[in-house]
């Protein structure tokens, strides 16, 4: 469960809140439909989440607190939910130029279970092959992001402790056998301790694409010279040049050349977010 949602539900057990959700958006807006924040009367809880900051969020927070103040008075009946259309223009001190509809919903602990289901963001499955330094940095960078990670290595005892809650580790020997059980629609990152293992995992991914075409992204860490060697060996295994175009190597955004694990991780995670966003746009109705 994402940290923001976990914090919201924890505070909700202590007192009611107003949940503010971006219900609709049009034009240039700071947050998309589905973004939310929760406002509590108790200053120690404050606010959780964000709908975009600035005067928009300040004004929405004041409206929510006013509703919570009314809720606290006898007979302590919760206020009705309401909606407000907001134009992001000069009157709000925000020049985005778009508009959005905010939904204000008083909630309490009795609704925690349904809120847990409703606010859980859609996660992209990701299979990460390799428990080394870069793999560890990527896992940490993915912590606050909507990915469900299967972290796979052929070696036992290589995974870092204190992992984000959406990361699950798996020891697989041979490592490429784990490709069979990767969820459909997953992104795959390959960065094992061994070039031989990397090659076997890439080959297993290509074989799966040949039969199912259900992996969203196959990325291999390494240089162009590494990929040239891999491409030659994969052709020898019977894969076509067209099939090899389904592998991205090197991984990461062009122009970010740092070799430090944290730098590579930031570049690769940004690339994954672009892949996910492109897939989401392609799936939207025209």
Could you name the key traits of this structure?
about 20% strand, 8 helices, about 290 residues, Rossmann fold
Short description:
By secondary structure, the protein is of the alpha/beta class. 36% of the residues lie in helices and 21% in strands. Strands 8-7-6-9-10-11 form a six-stranded parallel sheet, sandwiched between helices.
Would you mind describing this structure in some detail?
It is a single chain. With about 290 residues, this protein is of the alpha/beta class. The chain has two domains: about 5-120, no CATH class; about 125-285, Rossmann fold, CATH 3.40.50. The protein is built from eight helices and eleven strands. The strands form two sheets. Strands 8-7-6-9-10-11 form a six-stranded parallel sheet, with helices on both faces. A five-stranded antiparallel sheet has the order 3-2-1-5-4. β9 (about 185-190), α5 (about 195-210) and β10 (about 215-220) form a beta-alpha-beta unit. α4 crosses α8 (about 260-285). The two termini are about 30 Å apart. The model has no long low-confidence stretch (mean pLDDT about 90).
């Amino acid at each position: 469960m994402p940290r923001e949602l976990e914090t919201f539900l924890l505070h909700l057990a202590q007192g009611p809140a107003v949940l503010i959700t971006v219900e609709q958006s049009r034009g240039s807006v700071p947050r998309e439909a589905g973004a939310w924040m929760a406002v509590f009367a108790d200053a120690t809880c404050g606010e959780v989440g964000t709908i975009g900051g600035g005067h928009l969020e300040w004004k929405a927070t004041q409206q929510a607190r006013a509703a919570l103040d009314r809720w606290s008075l006898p007979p302590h009946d919760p206020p009705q939910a309401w909606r407000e259309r907001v134009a992001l223009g000069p009157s709000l001190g925000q020049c985005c130029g778009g508009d959005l509809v905010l939904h204000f919903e008083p909630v309490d602990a009795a609704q925690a279970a349904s809120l847990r289901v409703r606010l859980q963001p859609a996660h992209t499955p990701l299979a990460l092959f390799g428990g080394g330094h870069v793999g560890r940095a990527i896992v940490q960078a993915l912590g606050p992001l909507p990915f469900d990670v299967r972290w796979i290595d052929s070696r036992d005892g290589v995974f870092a402790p204190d992992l984000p809650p959406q990361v699950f580790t798996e020891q697989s020997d041979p490592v490429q056998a784990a490709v069979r059980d990767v969820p459909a629609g997953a992104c795959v990152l390959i960065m094992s301790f061994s070039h031989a293992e990397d090659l076997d995992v890439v080959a297993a991914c290509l074989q799966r694409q040949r039969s199912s075409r259900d992996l969203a992204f196959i990325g291999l860490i390494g240089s162009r010279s590494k990929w040239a060697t891999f491409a030659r060996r994969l052709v020898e295994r019977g894969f076509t040049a067209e099939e090899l175009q389904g592998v991205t190597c090197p991984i990461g955004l062009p122009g970010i050349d740092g070799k430090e694990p944290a730098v590579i991780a930031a570049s690769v995670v940004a690339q994954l977010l672009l892949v996910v966003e492109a897939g989401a746009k392609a799936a939207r109705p025209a």
